[in-house]
Task: structure prediction
Amino acid sequence: MSRIIPDTVVIGGGLHGLSAALHLARAGRRVVILERSWVGRHASGATAAGVRTLGRDLAEVPISLESMDMWHRIETIVGDNCGFHSYGQIRVAEFAEHLPILEKRASLIRQHGYSHEEIIDRSELMRLVPALSPHCVGALVARRDGAADPHRTLRAFRRSCEASGVVIHEGCGVTSIEQRGSDWHIRAGDKDYTVPVVVNAAGAWAARLAAMVGDVIPLGLKASMMIVTERLAPLLNPVVGVVGRSLSFKQSDQGTLVIGGGLQGSADIDTLKSTVNFVELAKGARAATDLFPSVRDVRITRTWAGMEAKTKDLLPVIGPSPNAPGVFHAFGFSGHGFQLVPVVGSIIADLVVRGKTERPIAPFSAERLMSTRAAA
Amino acid sequence: MTSVDLLIVGAGPAGMAAAIEARRHGVDVLVVDDQPEPGGQIWRSVETVAAAPRGALLGKAYQAGKSVAELFRASGAKYEPGTQVWQIEPGFRAFVTRNRQASTIQAKSIVLATGAQERPVPFPGWTLPGVLTVGAAQILLKTSGQIPDKPVWVAGSGPLPLLYMVQLLRAGGRIAGYLDTTPPGRGRATLPHLAKALGAAGDLLKGIAWLGMLRRAKVRIVKHVADIEAIGSERIEAVRYRTRNGQERTVPTEVLLVHEGVVPNIHATLALGCAVEWSESQDCYVPVLNGWGESSQSGIFLAGDGAGIAGAQAAVHRGTLAGLGVAMKLGRVSDRAAEEAARPVRQKLARELALRPFLDALYKPRPEVFAPKDATIVCRCEEVTAGDIRAMAAMGRPGPNQVKAFTRAGMGPCQGRQCGYTVTQILAAAEGRPAKDVGFYRVRPPLKPVTLGELASLEQQEKAS
Result:
């Protein structure tokens, strides 16, 4: 058996690393993924797995809509439907004074020529979510949105990667990256690789990797908390959020309620530990029981806080490194990267293989976050 | 928010003893416990039952709990029964629920006296109604005097099945038979520990006396049972067993009680990040503790069976040491006086512990407990089989947390209390590495299931304060 020599190293075995590796391998690259702990250990395993275009920053809307099309045919991409259901995502207005906020958003979206977000009245809202508390007055809905099963998605991307020849090394953290001519020499435990192309998809740790190749990109940390309950009979299909509160409320295929919405715990990037703050999480439980009074006696079985990178404008970094030729960044998704997984992998493959992409990624450049320093 | 010097979780022998000792030194103590009365599992309902006729049939060791409960009540410790602790944050802030209302407790030190759980034993049919643990049956006997109306089959190993059967007979219950799963050759295994065990001859004799009573009552005892299976569609209708010499039989029954020893409750210990070590002799994790029962996390003490299985008397001594250790740490008693006071307690504790190696060797679980067949359900909550877990193991060298993420084993309401060790052992066998290297689930809060409404009530509570 001849050993295949890789030409591309992807750092980070989260969903974005897997998606980049998959698209690159299908474009003919020989890809190795280096994952410090295991595939899906942090944000990708801790995500609520919302597949959402609703309420996205306008800069993200074009790639998010393309990604949504990919989700609707995800089985043709990774051989499994990833537990994706398109029951819509809904942002509820509890009170009349919240309606103008939604209407303003809807008209902004229309002005830019989009039609995926739509205002619905109370009766349509109650038709879509009969379990919702009757005090709610209306909502904004994106009907093609939905949610997937995060672990099923991880498994599907991983299997597709391996079937396409991607080699995944778990328990293999990168300790150094050095330039050698036009190549990059990467050390990770007892392994080392010399390759022309490196993809940095290291999530919360991506800024450290970027710094190794000379890109100083300030990056914050998120520790979004989640609640999962015991299983219950079917209650609702769409994913429900609400104006003025941190809530994302949905029911999984298993029947458990999955409640998130961006309430923050705390995280320590060095010890790899994240901590749930129950006083803060109580707000999420309050919002959930206010909107769905019938779930008051449902038992919480698990809670956690995932660890993820956050940029100062909450937009991701997607694109070539400004300082290190051959290095490409895909990180900083700031709590809403799951939906973008299919398209970002494809963008990275574009950039690596063709040296360019037609997708509008200028707003995601690393340069925008980097302080302009005088050249040494 | 309540604020105390010492929060004790659990009002069993260890928790009560820790409270009594800490109060003696003027420590401000709050004891919370999820039961309605003090006593824990071993002395459950002891205040009301010990003096009643049922107290006599439960035996002297049970009745001994009454005086400890009296001292506890008189100690001046605050006591909140019916209270569940579901999270403890460093610092320490404990989150509790009582009467469906959540609140927080600020404490300088914590004594975890949360006791033991019966070792889960997966076998075909163990999820059928009518299959219970011996411990659960004993609780029914202690609290409400409930006796199964038909003769029961008991299967397992260890002192508890013997004790329960004696108690059940005294209470007028009937036993169809005892499937003793203790493997042959254990006499030899225990020999090296016998001399030490003789120091605790009282307890040793107790076990022998129980066996004698069962023989006199002509209880059918089947020795060296290797495998059991509960058979039935809606509920158990029969039990099939196989002995090590290949004898196989199926007997009809409506109730099967199972017990293969106890293991420390480890969830809170792990969640708090206290160091634990694998006990080869007890096939479980035990916390790493200093001479006062303080864990690797400063200010967190463990006492009772949660510190390592040793029984009620040892729990009282460990509780006393923990209470003393806390008082010393808070400066309520000098180091020297504490050492002085600890010496006789440690001697008594050593005598209690002397019997353990003998019992551990005698009752070490049979290998089948850790190697359920592929079709057997391991995680009851999510219905994950041993085969599902072995299939995961075949895809690399996953740890328990990956297995959890991808099979959902350990994700249900019991939070892995039923399947944790089985998953560890199956992975250890499949991956050819020792159980201690495989590790255990990462424990996610809440430690006890709290409802969404209860958690929501915390928000109003915190706002008000």
Q: What stands out?
A: Chain A touches chain B at residues 38, 40, 45, 151, 155, 170, 227-230, 254, 257, 259, 275-276, 278-279, 281-283, 285-286, 288-290, 295-304 (CB under 8 Å). Chain A is about 25% helix and 25% strand.
